[in-house]
Design a protein that fits this description.
mainly beta; twelve-stranded antiparallel barrel
Length: 280
């Protein structure tokens, strides 16, 4: 009987000991997903009217993160390209984007860190102004190209939200199409590069709405030394819902404002349904 009592006491003592916390998983995590979206309609002697059309889009997104006890190195990329054709008109570019970002963070506190970051943006193919009769070319591969380097502080209140703010440098590089991207209309010379210094703020939201739905939002603000009237805004929002293992629907809404390019805000919206595949 006394052996049973001793066993029960030992069991109670063991049960009262604090559970040992598991060590966090450090090292690389890799995510990569790509796919193709296609929309097509065709008419032959269709009395109700309509025009045949074909639209397609390729995309590839990746995120490679190396998380350690005191540092975090995050590398992300977003690439997409698509074209559309309606009726007898020539094929036109509908989507074209290259965006790469690398952020190295040194963890100062649980939610606060110091960072250095670099960002590059451009496009794959030539762009045209279809509003003009001549359909003049207005851009090309890496013309323009945008680069930003920044350093400052990060704040991460949760796993789904993080923001950073710091001093920044911005370069706009052109080759054959300096206006309106880099050229200063106030001077007689034609500038093919533009250099700006100021402050940058970047806020990332990565919210899982359900088992199959994900919302990602990135708000980027850049203010040069000339004042708040010169704030550049880029707000990119993507809602992805997986219908099956390989079929998903994507809604992308992007707001862009840069007074050097246009006095009005620019808005792009795209809805796509197609095949997607997760490589990593």
């Amino acid at each position: 009987m006394h052996r049973l009592a001793i066993g029960m006491v030992l069991l109670l003592l063991c049960g009262s000991l604090p559970a040992q916390e598991s060590e966090p998983d450090y090292g690389w995590t890799r995510e990569m997903a790509g796919g193709i979206n296609v929309n097509q309609t065709s008419f032959d002697n269709w009395q109700q009217g309509g025009e045949s059309s074909l639209a397609w889009q390729l995309f590839l997104n990746y995120k490679f993160v190396n998380d350690q006890l005191k540092t975090n190195w995050s590398n992300t990329g977003k690439m997409s390209y698509g074209r559309s054709k309606t009726g007898d008109s020539a094929s036109r570019k509908s989507v074209d984007e290259i965006k790469l970002e690398s952020v190295l963070t040194y963890k100062l506190r649980e939610k606060i860190g110091a960072f250095v970051a670099g960002t590059g943006e451009s496009q794959f193919a030539a762009g045209y102004d279809y509003a003009s009769e001549a359909e003049a070319q207005v851009s090309a591969f890496c013309d323009p190209a945008y680069f930003r380097e920044s350093a400052g502080l990060t704040y991460k209140p949760s796993d789904i939200l993080q923001t950073r703010i710091g001093a920044a440098l911005k370069q706009t590089l052109t080759r054959d199409y300096p206006a309106p991207y880099a050229d200063d209309a106030a001077t007689t010379a034609i500038e093919k590069t533009r250099f700006e210094t100021g402050l940058e703020s970047v806020t990332d939201l990565d919210l899982k709405l359900s088992t199959d739905s994900q919302l990602t939002s990135k708000l980027e603000l850049f203010s040069n030394v000339e004042g708040v009237k010169e704030i550049d805004v880029s707000w990119d929002n993507v809602l992805t819902t997986k219908l099956t293992k390989f079929i998903s629907v994507n809604i992308n809404v992007k707001l862009f404002y840069d007074s050097d390019i246009s006095a009005r805000r620019q808005l792009k919206q795209a809805l796509a349904l197609g095949l997607s595949y997760t490589f990593l």
